[in-house]
Write a structure and sequence with these properties.
The protein has one domain: 2-Layer Sandwich (Tetrahydropterin Synthase, Chain A), CATH 3.30.479.10. Helix 1 packs across helix 2. The strands form three sheets. It has a six-stranded mixed β-sheet with strand order 9-5-1-4-10-11. Helix content is 18%, strand content 48%. It is elongated. The protein is of the alpha+beta class.
Length: 163
């Protein structure tokens, strides 16, 4: 069986966001941000038009997903050490003695455990997979999403697709 893979990464597939992560179960890094860069790979058989998936459609899909994260504070909903609450139109994030308050419109609450590059890649892959399902994708076998925090430092999440 033959398999092909396409890769999309563009200068406009970037988002600038703030975050902080917990680690070792008892430590928390300071609030900071990154200019994240995103790449996506889609693998599968060639379709009736002799390509894996349309580049233009894939670029538009990924741009729409990352625009939701751009210029926002990213907070994990499932982190056992970070308490998230809302008051009026603010989101409050608390870790031990630290408390941060953000305008609700400046925050994206993510259904992940930590805002690491690895889990951001998994989150984006899941959203991309859901969006890809709207298209004729029976020949697709895998998706990979790469999230680069800084040049030379990235995480890749790969998921096999049922098709």
């Amino acid at each position: 069986m033959q398999s092909f893979k396409i890769h999309v990464t563009k200068d406009y597939l970037m988002f600038c966001s703030g975050h902080f992560i917990t680690y070792s179960g008892h430590q928390c890094e300071p609030l900071h941000g990154h200019n994240y860069r995103v790449g996506v790979f889609v693998e599968g058989a060639l379709n009736e038009d002799w390509y894996v998936f349309d580049f233009v459609t894939l670029k538009r899909l990924m741009k729409r997903l990352i625009d939701d994260l751009d210029h926002r504070m990213l907070l994990p909903l499932h982190n056992p050490w970070i308490k998230i609450s809302q008051k009026d139109d603010h989101v409050i994030a608390t870790y031990k003695e630290r408390t941060y308050m953000f305008p609700q419109g400046d925050v994206v609450l993510l259904p992940i455990e930590n805002t690491t590059a690895e889990l951001l890649a998994r989150y984006l892959a899941g959203r991309a997979k859901a969006d890809l399902a709207r298209y004729a994708t029976q020949g697709l076998s895998a998706i990979e999403v790469e999230v680069e925090e800084t040049t030379g430092q990235s995480a890749i999440y790969r998921e096999t697709l049922e098709g």
